[in-house]
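Is this the right way to post structure tokens for a design question? Let me know if I should format differently. Anyway, here goes:
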């Protein structure tokens, strides 16, 4: 991977990580905080709505208590004049208070008065009201009771019941007065307008979806917050206070998620800004690094690649404006300079070694003596002369023992292995033994050789150098010399005896010639004298030959055979 690509990937990863971190932080900190703020707002709105509803319930209860403790109500109820009682309640107070219906029961719980003030569709039938009031025990109460009642097919209704008493609040109780106000859409809208909160009623089928999953059993009220499916609205469910024995009802608060989506738009804008900023910063970083660092590093890489390809260490890396890169280039250039000098010296050294090796190999190969390199009793190298002496191939002798080319015993009767081990031990101890050794050629022909062992050291350890000189001809020559000297000695002895034998006849011839005389006597005597001089010269030659024989015997041990 190129450095530019690597820098681009690292920059992209850092940018992506930064964006992801900002998104996560925004989602965790900002959006979650906004979500919590919205939920808190809904809860507070529900609390505010609950206070409004409680106030409406309380207001209706106060109205019921006021008319129940009205002396006119007490008097008309105790005088059993229902018709006159109806006229007392037909006033604007109930209409302005949006009371939908009114019931009055006597002391025994019998309905005496049933009045309707609201629209027809808002007023339940009298039988329905009677059955609900009886079921909820509202026909005979001893104190004021108010709350919400869910009437069949009519929905929630605010109901207030109070015992009919004298104006002073004293009894005995003459009956019960019950008034009711439907908690329908109109009233909910009025509450919503008064509280400036969008609220709506929840029917019985929708109540379960607002139930808390794990409500506190000790809590009398609960508030559940739910986000709509399209996530544009947030709703809070508020249970209304119901009279004992009546089904509870739920009022829902719907609020638009303006704050959340405003924060979400801000986060998206911020993330987009971060993406653009990081992208521009990444491009600038890449361009700056490419101009100030990567391009210079690329030139250095090209130079190093050229050195590697051409093996030309005379090249030098270019320098730049970055201190660290200049330091690296200087270090590499110094290394190239060192390598250049080293390779030059190495080449000269290798040439010297090659020439020396060639000289010594030529010297070793051209030597008339066999030369072997031994590691212990193993041949690790040898020259061609050694293989030629034994009539073998050089390659076949490597990693073999000299004992493989020697008889079991040497001419002196000693075992070859014992003799070789003894000389090898002496050599490793620092001595330089020189001894005669008998080899056998591949045909089994014995060869007498003179072996000189020496020790030398290499990095891999000590080795032995064996110089083998073939002395077979010398041995044969010595035998021939001995035989020749013996023959000469024999001839000299015979010649000495022959001289005596020659002198005796000459003396006879000389004596006869002197006795007889004659004209040829002088000639005969001259010839006798000449022959005698020749014999004298032979005697002197014999004496010189005897001196030579003694010299050979003394210094070269030639002719020492027993006579």
């Amino acid at each position: 991977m190129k450095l530019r690509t690597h820098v681009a990937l690292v920059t992209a990863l850092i940018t992506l990580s930064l964006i992801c971190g900002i998104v996560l932080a925004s989602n965790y900190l900002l959006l979650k905080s906004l979500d919590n703020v919205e939920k808190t707002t809904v809860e507070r709105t529900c609390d505010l709505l609950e206070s409004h509803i409680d106030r409406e319930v309380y207001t209706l209860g106060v109205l019921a208590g006021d008319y129940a403790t009205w002396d006119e109500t007490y008097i008309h109820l105790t005088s059993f004049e229902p018709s006159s009682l109806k006229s007392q309640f037909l006033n604007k107070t109930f209409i302005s208070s949006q009371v939908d219906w009114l019931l009055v029961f006597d002391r025994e719980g019998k309905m005496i008065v049933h009045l309707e003030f609201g629209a027809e569709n808002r007023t339940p039938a009298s039988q329905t009201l009677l059955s609900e009031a009886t079921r909820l025990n509202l026909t005979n109460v001893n104190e004021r009771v108010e709350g919400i009642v869910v009437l069949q097919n009519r929905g929630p209704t605010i109901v207030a019941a109070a015992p009919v008493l004298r104006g002073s609040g004293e009894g005995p109780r003459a009956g019960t007065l019950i008034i009711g106000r439907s908690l329908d859409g109109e009233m909910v809208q009025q509450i919503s307008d008064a509280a400036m909160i969008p609220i709506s009623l929840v029917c019985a089928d929708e109540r379960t979806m607002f139930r808390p999953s794990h409500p506190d059993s000790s809590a009398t009220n609960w508030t559940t917050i739910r986000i709509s499916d399209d996530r544009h609205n947030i709703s809070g469910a508020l249970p209304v206070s119901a009279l004992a024995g009546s089904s509870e009802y739920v009022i829902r608060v719907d609020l638009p998620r303006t704050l959340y989506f405003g924060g979400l738009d801000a986060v998206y804008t911020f993330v987009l800004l971060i993406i653009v900023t990081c992208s521009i910063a990444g491009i600038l970083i890449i361009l700056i690094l490419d101009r100030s660092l990567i391009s210079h590093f690329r030139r250095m890489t090209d130079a190093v690649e050229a050195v590697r390809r051409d093996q030309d260490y005379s090249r030098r890396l270019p320098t730049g404006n970055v201190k660290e890169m200049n330091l690296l280039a200087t270090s590499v250039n110094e290394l190239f300079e060192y390598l250049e000098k080293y390779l030059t010296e190495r080449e000269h050294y290798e040439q010297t070694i090659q020439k020396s090796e060639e000289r010594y190999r030529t010297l070793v190969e051209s030597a008339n003596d066999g030369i072997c390199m031994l590691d212990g009793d193993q041949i690790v190298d040898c020259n061609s002369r050694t293989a030629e002496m034994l009539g073998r191939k050089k390659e076949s002798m490597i990693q073999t023992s000299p004992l493989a080319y020697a008889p079991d015993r040497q001419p002196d009767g000693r075992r070859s292995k014992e003799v070789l081990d003894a000389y090898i031990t002496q050599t490793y101890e620092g001595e330089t033994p020189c001894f005669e050794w008998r080899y056998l050629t591949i045909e089994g022909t014995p060869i007498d050789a003179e072996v000189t062992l020496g020790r030398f050291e290499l990095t891999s350890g000590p080795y032995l150098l064996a110089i083998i000189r073939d002395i077979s001809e010398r041995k044969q020559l010595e035998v021939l010399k001995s035989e020749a000297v013996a023959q000469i000695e024999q001839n000299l002895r015979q010649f000495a005896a022959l001289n005596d034998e020659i002198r005796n006849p000459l003396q006879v011839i000389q004596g006869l010639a002197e006795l007889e005389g004659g004209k040829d006597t002088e000639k005969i005597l001259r010839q006798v004298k000449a022959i005698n001089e020749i014999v004298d010269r032979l005697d002197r030659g014999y004496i010189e030959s005897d001196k030579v024989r003694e010299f050979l015997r003394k210094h070269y041990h030639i002719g020492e055979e027993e006579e």
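Format looks fine. Someone answered above. Worth noting: Residues 311-366 form one domain. The chain has a mean pLDDT of 77.
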